Amino acid sequence: MTVLPKGVSAFPITPADADGTVDAGALHGLVARLAAAGVDSIGLLGSTGTYPFLSRAERLRALETGLAAAEGVPVLVGIGALRTDETVRLAQDAKAAGATAGLLAAVSYTPLTDDEVFAHFATVAREAGLPLCIYDNPATTHFRFTPALVARLAQLPEVVAIKSTAPEPAAIGAHLAELRAAVPSGCVVGYSGDWHCAEALIAGADAWFSVLAGLFPMQAMEIAQAVSAGDLARARALDLRLKPLWDQFRRHSSLRVMYAAATGMGLVSSLPPRPLLPLAPAVQAEVAATLAALGLA
Q1: pLDDT tens column, 17-71
Q2: I want to staple 116 with a disulfide (CB 3.0 to 4.6 A). Which of 112, 167, 200, 232 is the partner?
Q3: What positions carry a catalytic annotation?
Q4: Domain 7-229 has CATH 3.40.50.300
């Protein structure tokens, strides 16, 4: 069943202009850095990649640009949309372009039921034939995938992975065990929410779907490699060193912090898509100072 590799999946921003036209040159540069660093996979058009703000045409432009820059690194691409028919078309685009899998969230304005989400996934799976990663992101979608729903979805042969928000460290072991029990062997179980992901890897998660790695891949990979080597003290020390950045992620959102970091480093000139606003100058200065202190700027 395994389609997506385990390990660090790096999620970059998607630079675009005020009209929503993707800056293909800047995106190519961001993705090429990740491929050169040796990340295990690349997550295009995730929440940090601001997929809901882009048209179908621009999402395809971003995907084609990212695939060209990835140079064979597996690419997971966000395909979430409000309507099922639109999601099907996005999934078909992703399959035709050569994406490894689609990242599918329960995007909605009206709260969804479990049956509605199951029917949504089943339709996308049937009509697109693209391997799917369940994207459980209740802070954004206000929908939570229960273990029972995950078990139903995992019966679809196209469902090959789940990306879940990592709970507090004390709860990760039990949460991971519930997910493992709900999915078949070979289904990749991974976490996002960078500030808890070191502990998730230590608990036995397969993958870290990382915002940090979208701009600073080596730092995320060092933590994952330390866990893989059984050096848990080093993994925790590396994670603790990044606490000032985790704190900024939690205060201001990792998306806004990554935009500030990428623009401050001269890698992009884009602002977050409106109505999102860039961080205030004083906060941008705090981010720059944190990166400098960590040796990342």
Answers
A1: 999 999 999 999 999 999 999 999 999 999 999 999 999 999 999 999 999 999 9
A2: 112
A3: 135, 163
A4: no
